[in-house]
Automatic annotation (TrEMBL):
Residues 290-370 form the Erythronate-4-phosphate dehydrogenase dimerisation domain. This is Erythronate-4-phosphate dehydrogenase. GO terms for biological process: pyridoxine biosynthetic process. It catalyses: 4-phospho-D-erythronate + NAD(+) = (R)-3-hydroxy-2-oxo-4-phosphooxybutanoate + NADH + H(+). The active site is at 209, 238, 255 (proton donor). The keyword Oxidoreductase applies. HAMAP family: PdxB. Pathway: Cofactor biosynthesis; pyridoxine 5'-phosphate biosynthesis; pyridoxine 5'-phosphate from D-erythrose 4-phosphate: step 2/5. Residues 9-277 form the D-isomer specific 2-hydroxyacid dehydrogenase catalytic domain. It is found in: Cytoplasm. It is an enzyme of class 1 (oxidoreductase). NAD(+) binds at residues 147, 233, 258.
Amino acid sequence: MKILADENMPYVQQLFADFGRIETVNGRKLTAEQVQDADVLLVRSVTRVNPELLALNSKLKFVGSATIGTDHIDQEYLASRNVPFSNAPGCNATAVGEFAFIAMLELAQRFNSPLKGKVVGIVGAGNTGTAVAKCLEAYGIEVLLCDPLLQQSGDRREFVSLDSLIEKSDVISLHVPITKQGEHKTWYLFDEQRLNSLKQNTWLLNCCRGEVIDNRALIKFKQQRDDVKVVLDVWEGEPNPMAELVPYIEFCTPHIAGYSLEGKARGTYMLYQQLAKVLNLTADKQMDSLLPNLWSEQLSVAEMSNERALLQLARFVYDLRDDDELFRKQFLNPQGFDQMRKNHTHRREFSALKVGNTGQTDVNWLSNLGFSGVEL
Ligand SMILES: NC(=O)C1=CN([C@@H]2O[C@H](COP(=O)(O)OP(=O)(O)OC[C@H]3O[C@@H](n4cnc5c(N)ncnc54)[C@H](O)[C@@H]3O)[C@@H](O)[C@H]2O)C=CC1
Ligand SMILES: O=C(O)C(=O)[C@H](O)COP(=O)(O)O
């Protein structure tokens, strides 16, 4: 069996070698010729799986995408050909949640305006949105959720409309899939009009898909509204973000919000389990065996009384400023965006770090934030 896999998918050899012969490829440049004799195709978000890509293949038994998003997959077409498909829902949700939380702490530090006391609106309350909410609520931040689809489906949490969220929130974090049709479509959800409705000093973060914000409108908006601060992990027209937009953005990253080691491993592992199920193969490998040990270091936090201390702890795990600096230097280079993604040093999730308390202050809430708590 020939397994064609994106070269940026970790642990493919460890997990899939028993199932067949693995060939790795550049997912962005994948061609129909390369795919023609594959039995299994394992992709990431940069590969458009559509009739053109599969035109020469008549033996495909499974397509897997190690991602949460599925906008790059023509699922109707796969179904019409009876090719089973699976993505990896939730695989990197914790990574995205922690990324957005860290970005908010960085904004707070940069603008000397504490996160504590602000109201954060989350648009899209699925896996990633809920992961952000978890971090924020652990820190005692008021969270508003907007998700009309979940609301209609009977989700028992409290929801607000998007207009109300915009009106009441100091910070807005976007966590929706990209959809082009229907009552709740998200393509250009934040268009010129909606951007203009943001209240003074709003912070806007996009960690879902670039086209949820009209990036041209955002340039125009930022030219008038320096009070609004923006963090972008995703960009309209990736891998070529609009160069004029970058100077207006506080923290720029190349679509790596979900790039924790755990998140990527989980994505590959979920496909391993799905393929085994579809082809009736034995999946006896464990995900934990893939990951390096937790940090041997245990950080002792005598007290966590101010936001600066929390930011220091977060920076120990992931320093967003490094990715931002690299982005500004490299995004205009040919292949710059994809190179940064390919060479990204996968950060660990909060859970990889044990936090102990030698002081009197109660820091147990750090466990709720995701750190491995240790009582001392
Ligand atoms: N930057 C990155 O590295 C990553 C980006 N993503 C992107 O984030 C998206 C969301 O991921 P998850 O939260 O895991 O997906 P999910 O499917 O668990 O949740 C998305 C939620 O958005 C809601 N939604 C859809 N349209 C909406 C609208 N118009 N207004 C408000 N809510 C709406 C849905 O009802 C759903 O509950 C993915 O589809 C993917 O495109 C996901 C992982 C990593
Ligand atoms: O899971 C998703 O959806 C994402 O956006 C991924 O984190 C993006 O990573 P790649 O698949 O493009 O490596």
